[in-house]
Design brief:
The complex is a heterodimer of chains A (about 190) and B (about 230). Chain A is mostly helical and about 190 residues long. Chain A has helices at about 5-25, 35-65, 75-95, 95-105, 110-120, 130-160, 170-190. Chain A has one domain. In chain A, about 40% of the residues are buried. Chain B has one domain. The relative contact order of chain B is 0.15. Helix content of chain B is about 75%, strand content about 0%. The longest helix of chain B is centred in the C-terminal third of the chain and has 60 residues, at about 165-225. Chain B contains eight helices and two strands; from the N terminus they run αααααααββα. Chain B is mainly alpha-helical and about 230 residues long. Chain B is elongated and about 95 Å long. Chain B has helices spanning about 10-20, 25-50, 55-80, 85-90, 100-105, 105-110, 115-145, 165-225; strands at about 150, 155. The chains are: A mainly alpha (about 190), B mainly alpha (about 230). Chains A and B meet through helix 1, helix 3, helix 5 and helix 7 of A and helix 1, helix 3, helix 5, helix 6 and helix 8 of B.
């Protein structure tokens, strides 16, 4: 196994799932209409995280750091995340009308921008360009994992025979806690 | 609030809290974060409520997020002038407060179809109250059970590592979400029962009024016949 693959596995199974789970958990409340919609919204989030991260790195390096304006990080990140969320919405319109309709009618744009902004504050932007690319990619893979694991669980947990106040998000947070615990334990072996 | 709102606001608060698990580790931090989130949320929502009828919900969300970013940036800069360690610690990571602010705004921005000032701000205040309570309790549990301290004072035990790890924190949030949801359901049930009673009394009053009007008419008709 190459060292790069080992690094990726360690990153996914230790820090990534655990740290991204809190941010990724936000999407548990998003409407999961069908697998296609879930996949499309997850791709939108991943694309948004990647593009926002890369653009922010460039802005930070060439503008904010040069003019000592690092305190504007939040404003720039939010602006970028929202612009890219609107762009992905426009992109969805070309890809599939049905998915675009679901996206437009729900609150996915808000969820997508919140996840993007949240992820930007976990990432260390002082790292080099390649390291940053790697970190962003790992976070996206972690996010995909959380989404795919929880898509299958979503309906079953929502209609499970437990107390009504514990259904949906609380039960999913408990499941997320167990998954995080398992992945952290697996991560210790690497 | 619950009539046209498909989102359970307790779940939204729980998820807003889940996004902050890496950043809140004590009661004081939780309180400072709660104050910042509530202030930012209320100011942002008040500004956005002014353009309720002229802007699309996505545009309103965009403006709201930018306003919140501006407020949090101002809070971060002004916190630098307060020479208190815990405030300075929170100020370093205060940017993350934008995520709960963005999430909490989903209910008033996306699901208040018919604008009414009472309902709009009523919803917002209820959400703020829930957020402050849940964040405060979460900070308390994490500090006491995780680190064995309360407001920085040693309680005589080391604390349990489980409550410091993210999976323990998820579990704590899930338990709070269940407890808050039980309270929410009880309140909704009570309000529903109250509304049903009011409706029943209205029907009864209407029936009594109708009977009285009918009796009056019958009396008049009888008088006319004579």
């Amino acid at each position: 196994m190459s060292q790069f693959a080992l690094m990726a596995i360690v990153a996914i199974f230790s820090s990534n799932i655990v740290s991204v789970a809190g941010i990724g958990a936000i999407s548990l409340q998003a409407e999961k209409k069908n697998f296609g919609y879930m996949l499309a919204s997850t791709v939108c989030v991943a694309l948004s995280v990647l593009v926002t991260g890369l653009i922010y790195k460039a802005v930070d390096q060439f503008l904010l750091a040069r003019f000592n304006a690092e305190f504007l990080k939040l404003f720039v990140v939010v602006l970028l995340a929202l612009i890219i969320a609107f762009l992905t919405k426009a992109l969805l319109k070309f890809v599939s009308k049905e998915i675009y309709f679901l996206y437009e009618k729900s609150y996915s744009l808000a969820i997508q921008s919140a996840i993007t902004v949240g992820t930007m504050f976990i990432i260390d932007f002082s790292a080099g360009f390649m390291d940053l690319m790697f970190m962003l990619a790992v976070y996206c893979v972690g996010f995909f994992l959380v989404q795919i694991i929880f898509y299958a669980l979503y309906d079953r947990l929502d209609n499970s025979s437990v107390l009504k106040p514990a259904r949906n998000v609380p039960l999913m947070l408990i499941a997320l806690s167990i998954v995080s615990m398992i992945l952290c334990t697996v991560g210790m072996f690497f | 609030m619950e009539k046209n709102n498909p989102i359970n606001s307790v779940y939204l608060i729980a998820l807003a809290l889940a996004s902050m698990i890496l950043f809140v580790n004590s009661l004081m931090e939780a309180v400072i974060f709660a104050v910042c989130i509530v202030a930012t949320f209320l100011i942002g929502i008040s500004i956005v409520s002014m353009i309720e009828k002229i802007a699309d919900k996505h545009i309103r969300f965009l403006i709201y997020a930018l306003v919140c970013a501006g407020i949090i940036t101002a809070l971060k800069v002004s916190a630098g002038y307060i020479d208190v360690k815990v405030v300075l610690d929170v100020a370093e990571k205060i940017e993350i407060a934008i995520v709960p602010c963005m999430l909490l705004a989903i209910v008033p921005i996306y699901f208040e179809e018919t604008f009414s000032v009472k309902q709009y701000f009523g919803t917002s205040f209820l959400i703020c109250l829930g957020m402050v309570l849940m964040l405060g309790l979460y900070g308390l549990v994490t500090e006491v059970a995780g680190f064995g301290t309360l407001l920085g004072k040693d309680l005589g035990f080391d604390g349990i590592e489980f409550f410091v790890m993210p999976y323990g924190k998820f579990l704590v949030i899930a338990i709070f979400a269940i407890l808050f949801n039980i309270v929410r359901r009880a309140v909704i049930k009570r309000n529903k029962r109250f509304r049903t009673l009011v409706e029943q009394y209205k029907v009864q009053i209407r029936e009594i009024q109708d009977t009285a009007v009918r009796a009056e008419k019958a009396q008049k008709n009888e008088g006319g016949d004579k």
